[in-house]
Design a protein that fits this description.
Arc Repressor Mutant, subunit A, binds zinc ion, 4-stranded antiparallel beta sheet, alpha+beta, Endonuclease I-creI
């Protein structure tokens, strides 16, 4: 990692509530260096309540939290990881090819948690990440192993949010593990182009959640293979376009 990234990571850990000593151990740098970064030019430490998740806050949060959460939940189930260490970190991997999607992912993390968000460049993709003690409250699905090797079940309160915002949830799923493609078909010498959506995921549970959210919106789907869902009927594609659209 480059020094500015380490410094940004140290500051975000500190702002998320870690002590200087904890940050120094986590980033593997001397205490005085980390203390200087965190304290000598301090940004105002955020009010503790601002860093709590909407599940733990006493006051009612902004309702836009919920639609952004539904989107983030879709991204997380598609291509996210939550590592629960001293300070938990939520990471979502976004391909370099879709810069608007990277920005949308960052916005969703900020809207949901008001925590700081970093981009870490990897080969061919960007990890959008945020440290915060409350991420596990929002993603109780975290656990050892890969998602398709364990059961993925939504908590009742998560189901309620998806039921209220199925389109946002689907946008997250299709942005991470889906795509909108153009099918070219030739019928009696004439060429037609049919757009359709695909969603591919190895987890039968996550596939079931995608089907459920499509059913909530009355959008027809079918399975091409065990791990691959397709939305191809013209009215269904038009309906999904209102919620998802092509990646950019
Ligand atoms: Zn919480």
């Amino acid at each position: 990692m480059h020094p500015p990234e380490i410094r940004a990571r140290a500051r975000s850990l500190y702002l998320a509530g870690a002590t200087v000593a904890e940050v120094s151990r986590t980033v593997g740098l001397p205490y005085p260096t980390v203390r200087h970064w965190c304290k000598d030019r301090p940004e105002p430490k955020r009010r503790a309540s601002a860093l709590r998740c909407f599940r733990c806050r006493s006051e009612a949060g902004d309702p836009s939290d919920r639609s952004q959460f539904a989107y983030l939940l879709g991204l997380y189930l598609g291509d996210g990881h939550l590592v629960v260490g001293r300070v938990p970190v939520l990471r979502i991997f976004c391909a370099d090819a879709w810069p608007d999607l990277i920005a949308a992912c960052e916005d969703a993390m900020r809207d949901v948690m008001a925590a700081s968000v970093q981009r870490v460049q990897k080969q061919g993709c960007v990890a959008v990440q945020s440290y915060g003690k409350h991420w596990p409250c929002l993603f109780p699905q975290h656990g050892p192993g890969r998602k398709h090797e364990r059961a993925i079940v939504l908590a009742d309160w998560q189901r309620e949010i998806v039921e209220a915002h199925p389109g946002d949830f689907l946008r997250g799923l299709f942005h991470s593990d889906g795509c909108r493609v153009s099918n070219r078909v030739t019928v009696r010498g004439r060429r037609y182009v049919y757009p359709r959506y695909m969603f591919v995921n190895e987890s039968a549970d996550i596939m079931g959640l995608c089907q459920w959210a499509l059913d909530l919106l009355g959008i027809a789907w079918r399975m091409n293979r065990r791990n691959s869902l397709s939305v191809a009927r013209r009215d269904a594609v038009a309906a999904l376009d209102r919620h998802v659209g092509p990646k950019s």
